[in-house]
Amino acid sequence: MRLKLGIVGAGHLGSALYRGLLRSGTPPEDIILCVRPETVGDCAERFRSPVTGDINEAAAFAGVVFLVTRAAQFEQIAERGLDKSAACTFVSFMAGVTLARLGELTGSAELVRAMPSLAIESQDGIIGYTHCDARIAGIFESLGYAFEVGESDIEKVTAFSGCGPGFAAYIIDAFSRAGQSLGFSVSQADIIATNTFAAVCRRGGDYASLAEAVATPGGATEQGILRLRNYNVEDALKAAVAAAYDKVK
């Protein structure tokens, strides 16, 4: 029997989850989206799956319901009349909502917390999740690099990999702007910056050793890396991740 899925929320992350599920082979008729009642018509045109404004309809349809909305919004939805006898498993992508609180809101004992990156859309995401059965773990694994963590560590996943794409985009944009300061056009600098970072990521391996190998003694790369060290770029990145963690823990 095929597993039916529900997604509550159709914002950036909810839409990314939907597209990732389709890419992984889930038929559109096996997914139902739950959105604000006033947006049902618009979402019905955007997505190839059933759309409802009633979370109880989604919970009745699906064996697994992904909660991909803000915590305050879901609390309002739950308080407006969520049927706490629903037999589905709820998988929460909401930051800061503990399993205990989720149980109070849903009345369900079948609960999972997870934090994915937006790259789940292309099945190249990073997903940290709390203990779950093999069916749900399999869904996560179909969307990228998935790993189990204790609930106390889920906010660390949020700060590191969930916020990571924003940090990475900021760094690549800064590198592009450095190229522009040398006289490259915006489009040239963007392409060079993107391809440079992508090539290093494809190579993978020990990045510290690669940086050392490229930075030949007395060479130009060495001078640039020395400047990065002088500006404590590593410490700045650690501080950025720590600030994100302080916000969500």
Outline the structure in words.
This protein is α/β, with parallel strands linked by helices. It is 53% helix and 14% strand. It has helices at 12-23, 40-46, 55-61, 71-79, 99-106, 134-141, 154-162, 164-181, 186-203, 207-214, 220-230, 233-248, and strands at residues 5-8, 31-34, 51-52, 64-67, 89-92, 111-116, 125-129, 144-148. Strands 3-2-1-4-5-6-7-8 form an eight-stranded mixed beta sheet, with helices on both faces. The mean pLDDT is 94.
Give the mean pLDDT.
94
Q: What letter string, H or E per element, gives the SSE order?
A: EHEHEHEHEHEEHEHHHHHH
Largest sheet: 8 strands, mixed
User: Separation of termini?
Assistant: 38 Å
Percentage of residues assigned to helices: 40-55%
Distinct helical segment count: 12
- Structural class from helices and strands? alpha/beta
Computed CA radius of gyration, to the nearest angstrom: 21 Å
Overall geometry: elongated
Topology:
Blueprint: E1 5-8, H1 12-23, E2 31-34, H2 40-46, E3 51-52, H3 55-61, E4 64-67, H4 71-79, E5 89-92, H5 99-106, E6 111-116, E7 125-129, H6 134-141, E8 144-148, H7 154-162, H8 164-181, H9 186-203, H10 207-214, H11 220-230, H12 233-248
Parallel strand pairs: 1-2, 1-4, 2-3, 4-5, 5-6, 7-8
Antiparallel strand pairs: 6-7
Helix pairs in contact: 7-12, 8-9
